[in-house]
Specification:
Order of helices and strands: EEEEEHHHHHHHHHEEEEEH
Shape: elongated
CATH class of the largest domain: Mainly Alpha
Distance between the termini: 49 Å
Structural class: alpha+beta
Number of helices: 10
Helix content: 25-40%
Strand order of the largest sheet: 3-4-5
CATH architecture of the largest domain: Orthogonal Bundle
CATH topology of the largest domain: hpI Integrase, Chain A
Number of domains: 3
Strand content: 5-15%
Amino acid sequence: MGMRGNIRRDSKHRILRAGETIRADGKYQFKYYVNGKAKFVYSWRLEPTDKLPIGKKPCLSLRELEKKIGYDLDTLCDPDQKNITVLELVERYLRTKTGVKPQTKSNYGFVVNLLKKEEFSGKKIGSIKTSDAKLFLIKLQSDGRGYSSVKTVRGVLRPAFQMAVDDDIIVKNPFGFQLAGVVVNDSKTREAITKEQMRKFLKFVHDDNTYCKYYEAVYILFHTGMRISEFCGLTLKDIDLENRIVNIDHQLQRTSDMKYVIQSTKTSAGTRKIPITEDVAYCFRSIIEDRVEPKREKFVGGYCGFLYIDDDGMPLV
């Protein structure tokens, strides 16, 4: 199969249309979507006039099959791309999002999996009106999806459609509206625990045989407001006990495929130097004194000297 630019051709040098490919065994294949789910039709012939290869069962040609399933071939070849589905647009948009943090990537996966189950994802982007977009988000909420999930989905759909606007495929972004007037923000504001609850919790950790070894860690988390990933990422050189300052400019995380990674703080404002009280400094001192020096310090992303090490010599996450 010859390739020139993005144009695909078959062995007879005929241009293959969007969705058409040739498999390794020479069979033609057409991929299309129904309600966001990929479906395929196959044939040994592209056009009705093609000869059937020797020994193959008679079948309709691929182009006849395409017409049969209701695809308008002329519009499929429409360079405006108005006929790509919502799911195809989202997948195209996400391919432009390189270098994102693992958690962000996992959020994208959540959105794609959710969309695949929805009829909306199989609609052509050129046909989506603002009211369709609003009704889709309302449907998600009435199906029991939480406000934050709906917001996450909108957070991918809006820039994906904006990309289509910027590419001059569509004129207006149907998701360009404010979320507040469409779906109800029923998310509960989390209550911070009281000092008394914190005292009880710390007492439990202190007195428990299993968790007592993490008492200092829990105390530090309560009294500094650090994210757990920022605390796990701290190394000996980030802690200045003399001046009572802790430097936070990175976090340690383990991805779903068990890789240890150092990342920048969640936001640029999260990079900070925080002053600590004498009792927090005392906890850090205890952790550093109890720290078992490994035979060989483990490096993750250029950092070493982590406060807690697990049985495999890896920093605790």
